[in-house]
Specification:
Blueprint lengths: L2 E3 L10 H5 L5 E3 L4 E3 L19 E3 L9 H10 L15 H4 L12
Antiparallel strand pairs: 1-4, 2-3
Length: 107
């Protein structure tokens, strides 16, 4: 089992989750974070740290966000690892809760 970063992280990219991850399984893109499914130890420490509720257990992904399971795996293989907290994106507050943000994902 793994945890998955979902839709609401796009254009927010808070990194509170990164700071608590004991195995450094987060990877960073321009406007999104992902979790490497083979590195995640299912500790659940990251989920409550996300201020925009964008992290889910793979078996609790919201309806319509199944695509993020494969997307996390795909992008974690090519994006750089992130191990320290950074500032969220400048317009994160504006983007929090905006639905269907996948079209805004920058690779």
């Amino acid at each position: 089992m793994t945890f998955v970063v979902g839709d609401n992280c796009i254009n927010c990219k808070h990194t509170d989750c990164v700071e608590v991850c004991p195995v450094d399984c987060f990877y960073e893109g321009p406007n999104f974070l992902v979790i490497h499914p083979d590195e995640c130890i299912d500790c659940a420490l990251c989920e409550p740290e996300c201020p925009v509720d964008a992290i889910f257990s793979e078996d609790e992904l919201p309806e319509g966000q199944d695509v993020y399971l494969d997307l996390n795996a795909e992008l974690a293989a090519i994006w750089p690892n992130i191990t320290e907290k950074k500032d969220a994106l400048p317009e994160a507050e504006k983007w929090d809760g905006v639905p269907d943000k996948l079209k805004h994902l920058q690779r």
